[in-house]
Amino acid sequence: MKKSHIIALGVIAIAIGIIISTVGDASTYVGFTEAESLAKEGSNKSVHVVGSLKKDAQGNIVGMIYDPVTDPNSFQFKMVDSLHNEKTVIYSQPKPQDLDKSEKVVVVGSMDLQNNVFRADQILLKCPSKYNNGELKEEDMKPAVSMQNQ
């Protein structure tokens, strides 16, 4: 065999190894009920749960606990998944900045059966678009003010 053939086979083998390792680490999208079932089966695999923050009748967020003075790396909130199941989510990091404004929330982690909560390793936010139905808001159309050195 030529050297170029051996090198090409080596590159292909490395590419296949990378693809297989990333597929094995991929997590799936589930609801809280399925995440709980997976945890009961002994799976410690990370899952994605899509939902929204729990709100009262007036649209205020309920169940959010975050005190950065006491413990900045402890954040807790109630989330309702896409199947309308409610669960408390605990995130051991600071509260994401625009969580209150987000339309949808994706939490990545696993169920903690002992405490009946979802332990999130990561929070992904889907923030509302500044363009609603193709219309611009008045404040979005204002030109940016630039300061020049005088």
Automatic annotation (TrEMBL):
Gene3D superfamilies assigned to the protein according to its UniProt record, in alphabetical order: Nucleic acid-binding proteins
Family annotation (InterPro entries): CcmE, CcmE-like_sf, NA-bd_OB-fold
Keywords, in A-Z order: Cytochrome c-type biogenesis, Heme, Iron, Membrane, Metal-binding
Compartmental location: Membrane
Signal peptide feature range: none
Coiled-coil residues: none
This protein's record includes keyword Kinase: no
Primary residence: membrane
Protein name per Swiss-Prot or TrEMBL: Cytochrome c maturation protein CcmE
